[in-house]
Write a structure and sequence with these properties.
about 550 residues; alpha+beta; D-Maltodextrin-Binding Protein, domain 2; Dipeptide-binding Protein, domain 1; Dipeptide-binding Protein, domain 3; twelve-stranded mixed sheet; four-stranded antiparallel sheet; 19 helices
């Protein structure tokens, strides 16, 4: 990652820096919240980010959107747009923008104006117009935007005046307001972009972020820490804490040790094995809620023999999912049979899951002509996520399950940014662990974003599965306004998914955070991110 925040120092110096910067002495003068996060972000650009690690590091701290979700909920509320109106035919949205919203500044950029309509147009046009000067700077792929086909759906974005923007759609899009409250729709500074373009460094818009959010990025040291400071000019009022530090700590047990040592105030994704001790410790608060998530193993349907539905169905009988719930999640999850959680409306509870039956799996594989002499790759997640707290251990259990039916597996993993990049290539793997935490509470955010034909092109469909009947149902549901009318379409789509088996659906997990009792005002987000604007530290 080419950023001004990257520094090259001996590892011993970085270790010393980390200890000193996270010590109580360092935070004595100011309120410094230290968050033990699970991994390095793959980007600081919300338009490009698809993983929760990157979204939390960028969109949730640095940027704002036209609309937001109410804290701790999925209800859409005003953001940079103070109000909006919708035409009767549901194809025109008029947004009234807030005034006096200030931009961050940095060594690269000093803003000369406040946020206005030009910034909204720039941020949307960059993603939707292929000839836009910034469309290719991040690789020309905007996975969320592309998988939702917003480039086709958004017909025009016009400025009526500096504080009024009209977005015209080519057809009604039921989840549109929820969609633009998502992180990919964060608003960038056009003035900053123009300056970078003139300087010949347009790529810095994604590596050296400028936003309007509650925190400004100060420094990033890959695999070590991210430093932010409270933005003094934030339009909603300055954050209660002065500094925010992400102490990047991939190992959940190490995060716990840091919490106990006072080296961080809050840890993400605590290991299930540590939860009982955390709950019993009077120094900490453990908060939890049902997760709007799904863990899955994607079969690469572009690669033989996983392009054979009968093979995928057979393998679905080979995995002992109940053992994963007990061993990996310590029963803090439920077995998943659908590609979206039961907390989402239109969840089809009538679906029957593939039962665990190794003998049946082997018989069906033999019937399907499966080659038992070959070795197949199964990629395991390198970071703990709400939906999968231990990808390596889960991979070992999966490897053992498949060995019982004579299938040879090689476990493979990479660092998180590399894992995400390689997962986009259909010739790279046979099976891959992944998961998803919902972004807006709408079924479209699972069934369309992760499984549509367009999502294959957008690289968010990690099974590369494209089924026309499934796709037609999901696309039709997007054009119907009422939940009552959309529900049967999604229910039918889930039936097709289960029959075709592009994934092994594994689990819907509870989500947890453990925090020092000094931390006040933290609310666990059902959408999986971590926001620190409302957080304070008691003496």
């Amino acid at each position: 990652m080419n950023t001004r925040f990257q520094i090259k120092c001996p590892s011993s110096f970085l270790a010393l820096l980390a200890v000193l910067s996270l010590s109580p002495l360092a935070e004595a003068a100011q309120k410094t919240l230290i968050f033990c996060s699970e991994g390095s972000p793959s980007t600081f650009s919300p338009a490009l980010a698809t993983d929760g690690t990157s979204i939390t590091a960028s969109a949730r701290q640095i940027f704002d959107r036209l609309l937001d979700f109410k804290q701790g909920q999925t209800e859409v509320v005003p953001g940079l747009a103070e109000s909006y109106s919708v035409s009767k035919d549901h194809t025109q949205y008029t947004f009234k923008l807030r005034k006096n919203v200030k931009w961050h500044s940095s060594q690269l950029f000093k803003p000369t104006r406040n946020f206005n309509a030009d910034d909204v147009i720039f941020s949307l046009d960059r993603q939707r117009l292929t000839d836009h000067p910034f469309h290719k700077t991040g690789g020309g792929t905007f996975e969320y935007f592309d998988s939702m086909e917003l480039g086709t759906i958004i017909k025009d974005v016009k400025k009526l005046d500096d504080y009024t923007v009209v977005i015209t759609l080519s057809r009604p899009e039921a989840p549109f307001l929820s969609d633009i409250a998502m992180d990919f729709a964060s608003i960038y500074s056009k003035e900053y972009a123009d300056q970078l373009l003139k300087a010949g460094t347009p790529e810095k818009i994604d590596t050296d972020p400028i936003g309007t959010g509650p925190f400004e990025l100060v420094k990033y040291v890959k695999d070590n820490q991210i430093r932010y400071k409270a933005f003094e000019g934030y339009y909603r009022g300055r954050a209660k804490i002065d500094q925010l530090i992400f102490a990047i700590t991939p190992d959940a047990s190490v995060r716990y040790q840091k919490l106990k040592a006072g080296e961080c105030h809050l840890v993400t994704e605590p290991a299930p094995a540590d939860l009982a001790a955390m709950k019993a410790d009077p120094q900490f608060n453990v908060i939890e809620r049902p997760g709007m998530n799904v863990a899955y193993l994607a079969f690469n349907t572009k690669k033989a023999p996983f392009n054979n539905r009968e093979v995928r169905q057979a393998l679905s009988h080979a995995f002992n999912k109940q053992s994963y719930i007990e061993s990996i999640y310590l029963n803090n999850a439920e077995i998943a049979k659908n590609p979206m959680p039961p907390t989402i409306w239109s969840y089809n509870d009538k679906i029957k899951d593939y039962d665990y039956n190794p003998e049946k799996a082997k018989t069906l594989l033999t019937k399907a002509g499966f080659d038992f002499s070959k070795e197949y790759q199964l990629w395991t997640m390198p970071v703990s996520r709400p939906y999968n707290p231990n990808g390596k251990k889960m991979g070992e259990l999966m490897q053992s399950d498949l060995a019982k039916i004579g299938v040879k597996i090689k476990l493979v993993t990479f660092d998180w940014p590399t894992y995400l990049t390689k997962a986009k290539q259909p010739d790279e793997f046979s099976m891959i662990q992944f998961g998803w935490t919902g972004d807006n509470g709408d079924p479209d955010n699972f069934l369309n974003i992760l499984l549509s034909c367009k999502a294959v092109e957008a690289h968010s469909n990690t099974s590369f599965w494209c089924d026309k009947t499934f796709d037609d149902l999901v696309q039709k549901a997007r054009t119907v306004e009422s939940v009552k009318s959309r529900t049967p379409l999604y229910e039918k789509a889930q039936e097709i998914f289960k029959k075709e088996a592009p994934w092994l659906t594994i689990a819907h997990s509870k989500i947890f955070r453990t925090l020092s009792k000094k931390v006040q005002g933290y609310v666990l987000d059902p959408l999986g991110g971590d926001e620190f604007y409302h957080v304070d530290l008691s003496p």
